[in-house]
Amino acid sequence: MDDIAGALDSLLAITAVAAFAPLLAGLVPRLPVPQVVLLLAGGMVIGPQVLGLASPTAVEPLADLGLGFVFLLAGYEIDQRLYRQDAGRRAIVAWFASLAVGLAVVGLLTWLGVVRAFVPVALAMTTTALGTLVPILRENAMLRGRFGSYLLAGGAAGELLPILAIAVFLGIGNRWVALLSLGTVLVLAVLLGFATRVLRPGGRLAAVFTERQHETSQIQLRFTVLLLVLLLAVTERFHLDAVLGAFVAGMVLRRWAGGSAPVLEEKLDVTGHGFLIPIFFVYSGMTIDLDAIAQAPLRLLLFFGLMVAIRGLPALLVYLGVLSLRERVQQALVTATALPLVVALSEIGLRNGTMLPENAAALVGAGMLTVLVLPAIAVALRRPEPVPLQQEPEQGVL
């Protein structure tokens, strides 16, 4: 009973942080702090290193499910058509350029003894916080037109490609098991693809899913949660990797949902962002090693500078000739903004022992700094839209 009471007390503190974070952001409209930063900061405050109101181990299963939802929604939001266009091709080239530079620079830091395993740190330098950026960019009318497609493609590459790399190189230690994990995910993708044929329009099964997607049944949402929990259970049992599976499942789910995709997306947002994902971020804040940051603050600033240089600077060259200098600088700032995947990657690295605790803490801190600083500069650089001149009324017209 004491364990149950302690778990409920921890969950109460975490859900309080999750509830008050958007409230604070709404009451202070000019507060230059995205919600994910407030969730992480709240986790630090209620965690064992500060107030001790909550224990991370008490909510770890829910946090795992929230981590799965992070990658599920990331895959669900990816528009695969972008990669058939020039914007998508250039985004892929820019990401691989960032990866090459990141491996070289972080490899040097490994040789100097600053980091222990350079692959997870190098991958952290190549991520983009697209989910965090989209509301900011949309509010400032930066997703419209041709330039908006380049911003979206760059952000999507910064989510998709690091997830693939994380699944192969970090999720598991044995390379043969890694290949098995990839094969399992491909089989899953094929099976889900065939499900779209089974649920053909006009069929009885499709009718059941359409009729019972609302009210108390919520059948599509329940099967989505079943799929995600099944992935987590199977991968935990057989030591495979759930990251890539959750991401691919999200990509295939949009096609599987067909005409109900917007409805399912809204429900996934409610379930994920309304409950499970905030728990994951608050949990992650509780596990950040604050003493390590306090003892080596320059490490945080080093990683911040590397994120800007490694992820952002290739954009100045890759988009030469298609974007203006101002737009290329904005592209660099946007793609260098990284936090949710850095948090997830740091958590994975800590759990499988591939990342030093001080590096994980510094990476998350640097990611928080990019979210606070870089989008604000990118928005400040946008060209103001011309204000239409008011026409003088014609003579004789009141």
UniProtKB/TrEMBL annotation:
Domain annotation Cation/H+ exchanger transmembrane: ranges: 18-375
Pfam family, one: Na_H_Exchanger
GO BP annotation list: proton transmembrane transport
Keywords recorded for this protein, A-Z: Antiport, Ion transport, Membrane, Transmembrane, Transmembrane helix, Transport
Transmembrane regions listed in the UniProt entry: 12-29, 36-55, 61-79, 91-111, 117-137, 149-170, 176-199, 219-236, 270-288, 300-320, 332-350, 362-381
A GO CC term assigned to this protein in UniProt: membrane
GO MF term set: antiporter activity
InterPro entries: Cation/H_exchanger_TM, Na+/solute_symporter_sf
Compartment annotation: Membrane
Membrane topology classification: Multi-pass membrane protein
Family per similarity comment: Belongs to the monovalent cation:proton antiporter 2 (CPA2) transporter (TC 2.A.37) family.
The protein, known as: Transporter, CPA2 family
Native source organism of the sequence: Pseudonocardia oroxyli
